[in-house]
Design goal:
single chain; Uridine Diphospho-n-acetylenolpyruvylglucosamine Reductase, domain 2; Uridine Diphospho-n-acetylenolpyruvylglucosamine Reductase, domain 3; four-stranded antiparallel β-sheet; 14 strands; 35% helix
């Protein structure tokens, strides 16, 4: 199938992007890596009136270490994240994204804006309490990752807003575990463990409409519970639905196992 007709704008500034989005009145889409958007366009599941190419915007393709974390431009490719060494958890997660061609084109900002609950970066963002800087026609605001995701493929971004910068706090120790049917497929379940001064955060992906914290498991961990009890608490908290990749019961059991693996990688036994 071919895409439905649309106007194409090659933006040269963030102000131009937000202006075109505002004028499109909800009928505009941003094109960055295109690894999620282009297939949707080809299937005509999305029919934007205007497509705004942001790939030539200056200053959004850099990775910079800051006090306590890593600042990532929205146009940073997954390959760059996988190859950097300043944030090992982020590098590990990015290495699991798709295949080499996808990692070369896909972008950090695009991944969070697409909000696939089975994608790697949104789960890491929730686990680390990452923030995103969002710019729109009415100005700039900062959004915490847990407040960004509203549902499957749905965010709290306004129609005229775009993500410009992501900031990932750096955990003192971490663990990442993912199960997919085939290498490069979207995950069936992801578990991320990240330790900060305030305690250990555990997040799960692929088990609901948005990536979510496993607060019950975190409480068991804080109370000195065993790894088995922590994993059981994480599985008990979720209510996944079954699909062609596995039943709800399978996903709950898999979530417990992924939490155990992530805890082990973090050195929590």
């Amino acid at each position: 199938m071919k895409c439905a007709p649309f106007d194409y704008v090659r933006a040269s500034s963030i102000a131009e992007v937000t202006g075109v989005l505002a004028a499109a009145d909800g009928e505009g889409k941003i094109l960055a890596g295109g690894q999620s958007l282009v297939p949707i366009l080809a299937l005509r599941l999305a029919r934007p009136a205007v497509l705004i190419d942001v790939n030539r915007l200056p200053g959004l393709d850099s990775v910079r270490r800051t006090d306590g974390g890593l600042e990532v431009g929205a146009l940073v490719r997954h390959r760059q994240l996988a190859e950097q060494s300043e944030h090992p958890l982020l590098a590990e997660a990015a290495g699991w994204i798709g295949h080499a061609a996808i990692r070369t084109r896909g972008t950090a900002g695009g991944s969070l804006a697409h909000a696939d609950p089975s994608a790697e970066l949104p789960v890491v963002a929730v686990a680390t309490d990452a923030t995103v800087t969002v710019t729109g026609s009415r100005g700039t605001r900062v959004v915490r990752a847990p407040d960004l995701f509203a549902g499957p493929l749905t965010t709290t971004l306004a129609d005229d807003e775009m993500i410009t910068v992501l900031r990932f706090p750096l955990p003192s120790r971490w663990g990442f575990a993912e199960f997919a049917r085939r290498h490069g497929d979207f995950a069936v379940v992801i578990a991320v463990v990240a330790e900060f001064d305030a305690g250990v955060r555990i997040a799960l992906g692929g088990v609901g409409p948005i990536p979510r914290r496993a607060e019950a498991a975190e409480r068991v961990l804080a109370d000195g519970g065993s790894v088995r009890r922590i994993a059981e608490a994480a599985a008990a908290q979720i209510d996944p639905t079954g699909d062609l990749h596995g039943s709800a019961a399978f996903r709950k059991a898999l979530a417990a196992e992924m939490v155990r693996r992530a805890l082990a990688q973090a050195g929590i036994t």
